[in-house]
Inverse folding.
C-alpha cells in the first residue's frame, strides 16, 4: 500500500462495505451521513492506493476439483524470504506469509486437480531451494471465511440501513452440477472486482445487461460467490495476525466450531484432516489481545486438547494476489 492514511471516515466506509459490498454509493452515503460524491471519492482513493479491494470470494468447488491444503514450511537459516517469494509466484497459492512459531513460511495450496496438488506437495515444493521440511494439513470444509469478518464500527441502525443490500447467500456445500461457460466467465471477472457495474460486465462478456444481472444474481444467491472487502488487517488497526492449529475431542467439534466461528477475531476457520481438528485464522489489536484469546478468551476453550500458534510476520500474497 502507498503512504495512505486511513482515518475514521475511511474505516466507517470499509465497515459499511464489509456489510454490503455491492451497495451503491447513494446507499452508503445515506447510512454514513455523507454525500455520494464524498463516498465515491474516498472509495476511489483507497482502491487506487492499493489499500482496499472489493472482490468476490469463490466457493472452493468453482476453483478446483479438490480442496486446498495448508502447508507449514521450515527453511534453511536465512532463506525464508526467498522461499516465500518462490511460493507467492506460483499460480496455485492463494496465501503466502513469512511466519514464526510452527514454521518459517506458511501457505495455502490449491491446485486445479487433486493430482496437481499432490504433485506440488510431494515433488515441486520440496524441490524449492531453501526448503528443509514440510507439514501438510488438508482442509475438509470451510466453516467461516473473511467475508463474514466485520470491523465493529457500525451502529445497529446503520446495519439495518444496509439490510437487503447484500445479495450473497450463505456458504453452501460444493455444487455438484457443472457451471455454464457464462457462469464461469462471470465468476472470473467478479472475482477481481465485485462492484463492477452490470453495464461494464455485460460489455466484458458480450451479453445483454439483463442477462448479466440474472447470472450474477444466481451466483450470489447460491453462495458460490461471496463479495467481500480485501484489506490488510494491519492497515485498519489489527497489528497481529495469527494462524492456529486447534485440536479437541471428537464430541466437542461442533460446539467449538460454533464458538470459534462467531468470535469477533475470527477471519477464517476450516475443518482439517490432521491431528488438529481446526485451522484458524484470526486478527488481534496487539500481542496482549492475542494472549487473552489463547488463555481462554473464547467460549469452549476448556474443550481444546492442543493448540499451536504461528504469527504472520509478513503477508506476501493474500487471496491469490501478491501484496505490493
Amino acid at each position: 500500500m502507498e503512504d495512505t492514511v486511513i482515518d475514521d471516515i475511511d474505516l466507517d466506509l470499509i465497515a459499511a462495505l464489509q456489510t454490503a459490498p455491492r451497495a451503491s454509493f447513494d446507499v452508503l452515503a445515506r447510512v454514513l451521513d455523507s454525500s455520494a460524491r464524498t463516498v465515491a471519492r474516498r472509495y476511489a482513493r483507497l482502491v487506487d492506493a492499493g489499500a482496499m479491494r472489493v472482490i468476490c470470494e469463490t466457493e472452493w468447488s468453482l476453483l478446483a476439483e479438490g480442496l486446498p491444503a495448508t502447508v507449514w514450511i521450515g527453511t534453511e537459516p536465512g532463506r525464508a524470504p526467498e522461499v516465500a517469494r518462490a511460493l507467492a509466484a506460483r499460480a496455485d497459492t492463494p496465501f503466502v506469509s513469512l511466519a514464526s512459531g510452527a514454521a518459517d513460511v506458511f501457505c495455502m495450496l490449491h491446485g486445479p486437480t487433486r493430482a496437481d496438488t499432490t504433485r506440488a506437495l510431494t515433488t515441486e515444493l520440496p524441490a524449492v531451494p531453501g526448503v528443509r521440511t514440510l507439514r501438510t494439513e488438508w482442509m475438509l470444509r470451510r466453516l467461516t471465511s473473511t467475508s463474514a469478518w466485520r470491523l465493529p464500527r457500525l451502529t445497529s441502525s446503520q446495519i439495518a440501513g444496509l439490510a437487503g443490500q447484500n445479495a450473497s447467500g450463505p456458504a453452501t456445500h460444493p455444487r455438484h452440477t457443472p457451471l455454464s461457460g457464462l457462469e464461469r466467465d462471470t465468476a472470473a471477472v467478479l472475482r477481481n472486482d465485485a462492484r463492477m457495474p452490470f453495464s461494464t460486465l455485460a460489455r466484458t462478456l458480450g451479453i445483454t445487461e439483463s442477462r448479466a444481472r440474472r447470472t450474477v444474481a444466481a451466483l450470489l444467491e447460491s453462495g458460490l460467490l461471496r463479495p467481500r472487502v480485501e484489506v490488510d488487517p494491519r492497515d485498519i488497526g489489527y497489528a497481529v495476525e495469527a494462524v492456529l492449529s486447534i485440536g479437541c475431542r471428537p464430541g466437542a467439534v461442533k460446539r467449538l466450531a460454533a464458538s470459534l466461528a462467531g468470535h469477533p477475531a475470527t477471519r477464517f476457520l476450516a475443518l482439517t484432516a490432521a491431528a488438529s481438528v481446526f485451522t484458524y485464522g484470526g486478527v488481534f489489536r496487539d500481542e496482549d489481545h492475542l494472549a487473552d484469546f489463547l488463555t481462554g478468551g473464547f467460549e469452549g476453550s476448556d474443550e481444546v486438547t492442543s493448540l499451536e500458534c504461528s504469527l504472520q510476520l509478513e503477508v506476501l500474497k493474500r487471496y491469490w494476489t501478491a501484496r505490493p
Notes: The first helix runs from residue 8 to 19. The chain is about 35% helix and 25% strand. The radius of gyration is 20 Å. The longest strand covers residues 304-318.
